[in-house]
Each structure stands twice: as structure tokens, then as C-alpha cells.
Amino acid sequence: MFPIYDVIVVGAGHAGCEAAVAAANLGSKVLLATMNMQTIAQMSCNPAMGGVAKGQIVREIDALGGYSGIVTDHTMVQFRMLNRSKGPAMWSPRAQSDRMLFARKWRQMLEAHPNIDFWQEMVNGLVVKDGVICGVRTGMGLEIPGKAVVLTNGTFLNGIIHIGEKQFGGGRAGESAARGITEQLVELGFEAGRMKTGTPPRVDGRSLDYSRMEVQPGDENPGKFSYTDTPALKQQLPCHITYTNEEVHAILRTGFDYSPMFSGRIQGLGPRYCPSIEDKIDRFADKDRHQLFVEPEGWDTCEIYVNGFSSSLPEDVQYKALRKAPGFENVKMFRPGYAIEYDYFPPTQLKLTLETHLVRNLFFAGQINGTTGYEEAACQGLMAGINAHQAVVDKEPFVLNRSQAYIGVLIDDLVNKGTKEPYRMFTSRAEYRILLRQDNADLRLTPPAQQLGIRGADERMERVEAKLEAARQIKRFFEDTSIGPDDVNGFLREKDSAEIRQKVKLHTILLRPHINTEDLRQALPVVDEFLRAYPDEYIELAEINLKYEGYILKEQELVDKMTRLEEVKLREDFDYQQVSSLSIEAREKLSRMKPRTIGQASRISGVTPADISVLLVHLGR
Q: Where would I find the beta strands (DSSP E) of 279-386?
């Protein structure tokens, strides 16, 4: 009934969709198995993509041929560039999406791919022979043969939903949990754990009084995520901000005795940086209010997502408390918030390719690895899909390092450090964030995408080369063009910046704080005339390269030093137990995790600088 698939992807959330596309775009014949074809690429939580550090990840996915950025551009209702008041390393794009259009567009793109087949049924087992994956087993007892399998089960593995004292099995509201896979993996020797996440209530936007809230509009000139020719956003929906207060908090506290989180019914740890509303008012008792972001779910629906009010308290407590927030006095609830507890597998059991150590050609991606967030899941799916294809065709694995991409930081953190709570990406996790900006993801990752042979990478590379050449031309213009006091001193006075007494090169003016290319375009016709020929993103790249050149060079020097350690390879069959000078902890962890390089070994928790020195001596370095 089934052919032998190159890659079988289990689960069609953000990780599963990107995994399927990645393998298919490299030429693999892919089967995407899901319990429900109607919930492909469902935005289970907030209707948004991107954000701090997450926006960089979406751009990186796009540069590597993934579809998340393209889908977001086609379906967003608002776009904002966050952190514009900070340096460019912190700028992060974020978009509100129409959640129904988002899922529909993903499904259309998947179904249009000739290399992707679909199967709607629960997968409850794996076919493993002699330590190698051979396929999957379904609830109806069917065996589907495959050369590689990517598990992207999200919150469905033995998922339990909690609302107050009520609990019931489920992977998402209205959908059943997946059973069988955890138990089989544990039998095979995998370590499993439990994690928790949550979601806020959804409410009827027609019942809200927006006049009592702060308006949060999109950018005046909205950007986009994809480096391809996706449509520009012409019209936007506003979001709104309101706040909790002491009345809200007092009502919420009446439900604490029924809270599954406080009573101990939930064993798994939740995301530290996205706590539930009851957790916030318990942990931050000194704060008399917390922000609530009122986010529309789409163009043609009145459904509203109440970001910041995630809760697993009884539904009547949630409802009464919400009605005390400004603008929510007459709110009607579509459904209450809930917490969900699910199985995950500590990611230290994986290689940097996201292949498991215990079963060859079996890959894990997304929340099964202990992460939280659409973007974190999607990028893992992309990398797992690429490496599943590479394994099947017996090609070199594809691994991004920490200086290449936020994706590299995320996977390196997971594999080498593990996580005991849902892992979320932040700019602070990346030590080379001046290099890993949202504006240059295409420059960083299109070349490796082209080397891999990802579909469409040749055309993307032509665009990258044009962008680089344009940035060089713009930089040269600012470095070569002189400007006199009569031309610029009036403008400098307006900016409270020191006047010049003789001719200077334009770039010396641009290097001053609080002066940018847009200012110079308005003040100097010669600048405006020259820059008219270039798109905004090319001008932005040139400006960043000029203003931050010293910082970029210093960071690149640090990368070069670390690269030397990454170049010292370690054999997978290296016997660390025979190196008696290593600490006992280092021997145990190095033997279990099998690092590919000295650089990776140095980032494993418990491996000290002294252990690294011992290894280097042992290797004759």
C-alpha cells in the first residue's frame, strides 16, 4: 500500500511542516503523518510570528529555504520591528497573523509540493531493527516503511489538559493525546520527562471596549520576513494594551486552592519567561498590575487572544477576573485558558544534527526536545528535515555553529547543555549577536543553502550578491563624498551635534550618534539623489556596516579564535574512558554525548577547561 519513503515526518505543526518541506526540497520522497489534516500548521497559541530573537530565526529559516517567513508575509495583519531604539543587533521583526489564513496557506504550499504525501492517522509506534529506524506503525496497525523518521509530536505525547481541578487527556483543546511512542522510546533506552505550557482565554472582540485601552498600531512602513518576492502589507489591524489591577489579582487568588500548578497536580516545569497570570501575581506580589496584549486572530473573525493572561485556574475564576480589567467589563469568553502537560525527551540524547544517539536515522524536532515557541520548533524541523535527507543519501550532515545563526545557538544549547524547563530563544543567549542580525540572515545562510542544493538557492544567491555589491557601493559613496560646513551645519545645529569647520567625508557625519541615512537624505539632496536607486534594506545594511564596523571586526576576531577549536575533530568512537587524566564527570558526559569537535566538547556542562587541555594534549595539540 505504501512505497518506502525517504523521510516520514510525524506531526504537522510548525516543526513538522518545515521538516517535510526541507527534506522534499532536497529531493527526498516525504510522508507527512498527522492525526488531523484540518489542523496542519495550527497556531495553537498566540497568532503571531517573530519577536525578540525569534524574528531573527524566522529570517534564518527563510534564508535556508523554509516556508515560515513566506507564509507569514502572505497572512499577516500587522508588522512591527521591535527594539528600534536599541542597536541593530537587537532589532527583531514581529508579525500578527491571521491564524486561519496562516494554516490554510501552509497547507496549500505543502499540497503543491510533488515530493510530499499525506496520511491522516495517529502514529503510535516506530519500526526499529538492529538500532536503525525502518518506519512507523499507526493506530490501525499499518506499517509505513521509511528510511528516516522525524518526530515532531509537539504537546501531544501523553498530553493532559488542566483547567482548575478538571483534567483530561489531550494534545490541544478538542484533540486527543498521542500514546505509545513515549513508552516504546523508553523501552529502547531513552530518558523521558514532563513539561508544562499554557494558553490564555479566547474572547469575543465585539464585547470589548477598546476606548479604555491603549492602541498598539503596526509600523508606518511595514516590513516583511521573507527575502523572496512576497506581497507588501498594505492594510493593518491594530492591537491593544490593557492592564490587570488589584481587583483582578484578588479574584485570581480565590482560585489558587483549585490551581493544578499550586496543588502539585502538574509535575512538569513551565516556561520561566512566559509564566501564567497566577504565577505572575504569586511570584511578583509587589507589582500591582501586569500588561495584557489584546491581539486579533484575523481579518474576518471577532476572536481575540488575551496575551499575558495564560491560566489554568477554574474557568469561572478566569471569567470573573477578566471582567475587572479595563475594557473587559462586558467580556464574553469563547473558551477558557488551560495548562497542558506533556512528555519530552532531554535533548542531550541527540547529535547536533538532531539525530538520536540510540537509533540511527531517527530525528527529534520541536517541543519533544523541550523547547517552546513556533519559531524554535520550526527551525529545528528545518534542520532535522535537512539532516534526515542527508542521512538517507549518505551525504555530510548539515550543522550550523554558534557564529552562523541563532539556529546554531539554539541547537548547540539544547544538545550540549540540555534543558529542564521549556527553552525559549533570547538575543542574550547568542554571544555573537552583532553578527547574527535580522538584516543579514540571507548573507549568512544563503551560501550554505546553495551548497546543500536546496531548491531555489541559486536565484537567492544572485540576489545576495546584488545586495552585497549595492552595500559596497553605498559605503564607498559615504566614504568618498565630501561635504562642506555651509551644506551641513544648519542640519547639525538642529540635531544638537557639533558643527564642522572644514570639508569632511560624509561617513564621519553618519558615524555620529542619532544621525542616520534618512536624516542625511532629508538634509542633503546629493545623498537623496544617490540613494534613490537602492532599496531600503540595501541602505540599512550599508549603514550598519559603516556605523558598527569596529564592533563587527572585534566580534569576528572572537569567532576566528573559537573556530580553531571547532576545527579540531573528535572521532565518534573515541574512548574517553581510557584518558585517565579526564575528570570522571567529563569521561561520562563525553562518552554519552560524543562531541564532534573540541569546541563542542568545551560547551558541555561539566566539562572543564582543564579537561579540554587534557584532550588537546592527548590529541597532540
A: 291-296, 303-307, 333-335, 338-344, 362-364
Q: What is the CATH number of the domain that holds 249?
A: 2.40.30.260
- Amino acid of residue 297: E
pTM over 0.70: yes
Listed residue (75, 70, 55) closest to 25, CA to CA: 70
Tens of pLDDT, residue by residue over 167-176, are 888 888 888 8
User: Both 213 and 328 in a single domain?
Assistant: yes
Q: Cell digits for 105?
A: 496557506
- Domain assignment of residue 512, yes or no: yes
- What end-to-end distance do the CA atoms of the chain give, in Å? 56
Q: How many helices (H) and strands (E) does the chain have?
A: 22, 22
| DSSP letter assigned to residue 121 | S
d(CA 16, CA 389): 14
Residues 596 and 530 reside in one and the same domain: no
Q: How far apart are CA 169 and CA 173, in angstroms?
A: 10
DSSP state of 290: -
Domain that holds residue 511: 457-550
Q: How far apart are CA 273 and CA 195, in angstroms?
A: 14
- Select from 275, 302, 337 the last residue of a domain: 337
Identity at 454, one-letter amino acid code? I
Q: Give the C-alpha separation, 19 to 84, whole Å.
A: 32
CB atoms within 10 A of CB 83: 17
pLDDT tens by residue, 10-22: 999 999 999 999 9
Grid cell in block for residue 467: 545586495
Q: Does residue 233 sit within a domain?
A: yes
Per residue in 295-307, is it b (16+ CB within 10 Å) or e — as a string? bbbbeeeebbbbb
Could you tell me the CATH number of the domain that includes residue 583?
1.10.150.570
Any domain includes 316: yes
What single letter denotes the amino acid at residue 321?
A
Last residue of a domain, one of 337, 358, 391: 337
Round to whole Å and give the CA distance between 611 and 589. 12
Q: Are 412 and 432 in contact (CB under 8 A)?
A: no
Query: Domain holding 519: CATH number?
Result: 1.10.10.1800
Quote the CA–CA distance of 169 and 185 in Å, as a whole number.
Answer: 20
Look up residue 18 and give its amino acid: E
Total of domains in the chain = 3
Kindly report, residue by residue over 283-335, the tens digit of the pLDDT. Answer: 888 899 999 999 999 999 999 999 999 999 999 999 999 999 999 999 999 99
Q: Per-residue DSSP letters for 425-449?
A: --GGG-TTTTTS-GGGHHHHHHHHH
Residue 33 to residue 102: CA distance in whole angstroms: 19
Give the β-pairing of 143-151 and 5-10: parallel
pLDDT tens digits, one per residue of 398-416: 999 999 999 999 999 999 9
